[in-house]
């Protein structure tokens, strides 16, 4: 049962008043109506309880508070409350207030059906919204455990440091931190991000170009809204990231799937398919999902094509901090001399995804445009976590955490590759294990990845099938295997289980 409390509020004259924390229900009182006011209040409460809008145990505002809110005298409110108490809809608790009676069922059966039941005829959603697949019901999207994609080693997160910084900022909440902020994000945090990106990712930027976003997904969406008109042809990697596909579909873009090979997006194939595309969306550091790194020659080809076609390049650099066999690869944005690349990054992989913080680097002349669009969507990012993370980065905890996790994930990745070799020999081709927290394996001909994944999910093994990540013909069958949340010691057993499911 929900606990509904009271709290003390200091009034303007400095006295302390007990204020009911109970929210007033929607009760309309019409002074001119023939029905007496106490009856209107009584009916309003009774109806709210019967419909389930007010639930058992929920606190009711005091008679005084309700009278003030309705702008009427307290007498009809007292009469209505007395009646509701007498009939058992309300109960009063000494010193605590008035509550919806706890002896009523938690969710009374409403005379008009339950709240989630659809009672009317057709009420169509927008056609645009129907181009996005329904919330995925495939079990591997939500499963957690061996091989689930996007899972991190959460147990290695520096909880103590994080909590200390969070507490520091919670303790010093001040009036300025309560107001609306800059749609680009807080200045302090943006300066910290810009310094990090210049150093660690060779991104050309200053703080004015950084927009703090709620994860890279918001940045992908913002780019589509700000830079592209409905019907604009855009290159996407094939196979590629499903949520990008959805964001572009929602924006009404015309998707041109461009094949990915061992060197990343095949630029020549893109030019053959649609030379005049308005943008190309790429994951050059660690292609999602195949994991390949875009070669230097492809990077230059892509920049050259974009210059010639007057197109944008959106660089989604979602997990490049974790690179195992070489130093992190410098960003594509750093090679661009024509302000054509929008760079996107996220804290979802380096810290944790529920943080919902990421950033984008916007060419200086487009900053105002992006800021204007962002204001329409969610005004500005929340301030608290920006302040916490700025300290976390400035005090060196971020760099330390990345170094530590790089070693841990490297161990897990090697254990996975080794276990695949020992269980499957050369029958499973492994690609893309040089960075990030996932790699891909290709199945031999004749096997169906979606069927195997469904079978595996019934045994709590989360094999994410590769073929749905393709838009074009002849998708390859295989799996995207996350290794972030499985320890090196557990890996051989997990791979044995995978072999038994595939067999
Ligand atoms: C290609 C790609 N981009 C971006 C993201 C991260 O999204 P977000 O920052 O919104 O959590 C992911 C997450 O898995 C991804 O695979």
Structure notes:
The chain is α+β, with helices and mostly antiparallel strands and about 500 residues long. The protein contains 16 helices and 17 strands. The strands form 4 sheets. It has an 8-stranded mixed β-sheet, with helices on both faces. A hairpin with a 5-residue loop joins β1 and β2. α8 packs across α12. It is globular, with a radius of gyration of 28 Å. The chain binds pyridoxal-5'-phosphate (PLP). Pyridoxal-5'-phosphate binds next to α8.
Helix content: 25-40%
* Estimated structural class: alpha+beta
Q: For the largest sheet, list the strands in their spatial order.
A: 6-13-12-11-10-7-8-9
Specify the number of helices: 16
Present as ligands are: pyridoxal-5'-phosphate
Share in β-strands: 5-15%
Query: What's the average pLDDT?
Result: 90
Largest sheet: 8 strands, mixed
Q: Which characteristics define this entry?
A:
503 residues, alpha+beta, 8-stranded mixed beta sheet, 4-stranded antiparallel beta sheet, 16 helices, 17 strands, binds pyridoxal-5'-phosphate
Task: Annotate the secondary structure layout.
Layout: E1 6-10, E2 16-20, H1 37-50, E3 59-60, H2 63-70, H3 74-86, E4 90-93, E5 97-100, H4 139-142, H5 159-171, H6 175-178, H7 187-200, E6 210-213, H8 216-227, E7 233-238, H9 242-250, E8 254-261, E9 264-265, H10 267-274, E10 279-282, H11 296-309, E11 312-316, E12 341-346, E13 358-361, H12 367-378, H13 384-394, H14 397-424, E14 429-431, E15 438-442, H15 449-457, E16 464-465, E17 478-482, H16 491-502
Parallel strand pairs: 7-8, 7-10, 10-11, 11-12
Antiparallel strand pairs: 1-2, 3-5, 4-5, 6-13, 8-9, 12-13, 14-15, 15-17, 16-17
The protein binds pyridoxal-5'-phosphate.
